[in-house]
Every structure is written in C-alpha cells, then in structure tokens.
Amino acid sequence: MKDKLCFCALARGVLLPAVLGISCAQAQAVDALSDASDGVAVRGRPAVAGAPLGARDASLGDVGRGGPLTAPRSARLPANEQALMAYLLRGEGAGALKHLRSANPRLDVTDEAWRTPLTLAIRLGDVPLVREMLRRGAPMEARGQEGMTPLGLAAYIGQDTVVRELLRQGAEPMAVSQRGQTPLHLALAGGQLGAAQLLLAARPAAQWQRLYNAEGRHPLAEAAYRGRLDGVRLLLQHGVAVTERDKHGLDALHAAALGRQAHVADALIAQGARPTTPLTALLLAQMREPLPDLATAP
C-alpha cells in the first residue's frame, strides 16, 4: 500500500504535509484544485502567464481601474467631468486634450468603475495628454480601488512611453499596490520587457529583489511563476542571482515548479539552479507528469 502521506498545496505557494485517506493520485488532483486559485491550472496546464494575480484576486481584473480612494466617486459626475471621461472612453485623445484646456475639468474624480481621467489617458498611451493632466495636478501617486498606481498600470499594459514620462515627472518607481506588486512585478507579470527595462534603469535590480508581493515573491520569482522566461533572463542579465531567496526562503526554481513552468525551470537549472528543499524537488517531479483528469477519474 502506497504511503498516504502526500502534500497538499495551500494558498500562496506554501505546502504542508497532510495525511489523507485517499490515494496519492487523488491527493495530487486535490493539490491541483487548491493551487488553481494561485494560477496553477488543473489537468497539468501551467499557470497562465498573463494572469498576474491569479483567479482569486481581482486587482487587475479590470486594468482600467485605478482611481484614487479619496476622490469623489459617482455614477453621475458633473457635466464638465462627464464630457472629459466620454472623450477618453471613446479613445478621442485630441478631443479630451482640447476639452481639458478649454473647460479645465477636475482630474481627481472617478467613475463608477474607479477609472480616473489619468488612468484612461494612460490606457490610450497618449503622452501629451498625460503630460497635460499632470501639469494640471492629476494625482500621480493616487492608488485605485486595489491600490495600483498609474505607473503600475502603465507598466502592466506596456505603455512604455507613458512609463518613461511618469518616471521623468517623478513618479515613485517602487510604490507598491495593496497586494505588494511593484510596477516591476506588474511589468514582468504582463510580459512587458520594455517597461521592465525602464524600471530597472530607474532603480538597481538588487533593490527590486528586496520587495515582495502578497505571495512573498520577489520580481525574479514572480517572472518564473508566471512563465515569463524573457523577464527571467532580463533580471539575470541585470545581476540578480539565480539562487536569490524570496520572503519564504524559496528561490525562483521553486516558483517555476509551483507554476508548472517547465521551460523556465529548465532555463534556471541550466543557469545553475538546483532544488534546495524536498518540496521543490517534489514539485519539479510533479510538473513533469500530467495531473489526473477529475472528469474521467473513477
């Protein structure tokens, strides 16, 4: 009889041994389900690289969000502000800029979806419009409902010219969201290498590696977990050690194995990474084997 001592994944990538009254194959299936909320898919599929915070977190579910928590929020904004938002929502940057200069609407407002004029301008990638809004006092460090800064939003969606402008205007590059995501975490999660390079130019890689998100992952571990191999290589090129430990004392190889990102794990191993805990070794072994399909299990 096989051991019934199996490992069940808990939230945030922490695994604990548990004695289960089921087979190891069944326990692995349960393990997959428990990991699904962290982006580790069932049935052997890897974590979705473009899903930066997993299914259980809505922080980036609508990247148009980002209005300041203290700003007036109403479904019925004053007419002047409504007109500006309407231009922006239609993607009419030139019209928005003209209205901004002629009518001087307030810029510290949000709509019912927590969008601000600045976040909508960022989504358009309209640098002159962003610059004019900042000149008129748009809050550059205001966090949205989930705590994402305008710089974090621009980094995540890959608006590199806006990222450059916000940094030039003095935006804090290491300001974190409510879930601890720095703009670099967000850029790597979104696969935005251009934004990541700009942020690494603003602060040394060693400083970024001391910042952890809510899951305890530093930027290298986040890139590994999300399957962003180019981001992993970028950080290594900037001098980040492949053995760098995260908040939980785990390395990027563990994060790649947890996310079932075999291509990233292989690249890290080629750079000298080795399993440093039995749990990492177990995850690497499980990663190579497809998980059982619960729909067809007896």
UniProtKB/TrEMBL annotation:
Q: Is DNA damage found in the keyword set?
A: no
Q: Does the keyword Repeat apply?
A: yes
Report the superkingdom from the record.
Answer: Bacteria
Cite the entry's keywords alphabetically. ANK repeat, Plasmid, Repeat, Signal
Q: Secretion signal: which residues? A: 1-29
Against InterPro entries, the record matches this protein to: Ankyrin_rpt, Ankyrin_rpt-contain_sf
ANK repeat feature ranges = 113-145, 146-178, 179-200, 215-247
Gene3D superfamilies recorded: Ankyrin repeat-containing domain
Report the PANTHER family cross-referenced here. ANKYRIN-2 ISOFORM X1, MOLTING PROTEIN MLT-4
Name the record gives this protein: Uncharacterized protein
Organism, scientific name = Aquabacterium olei
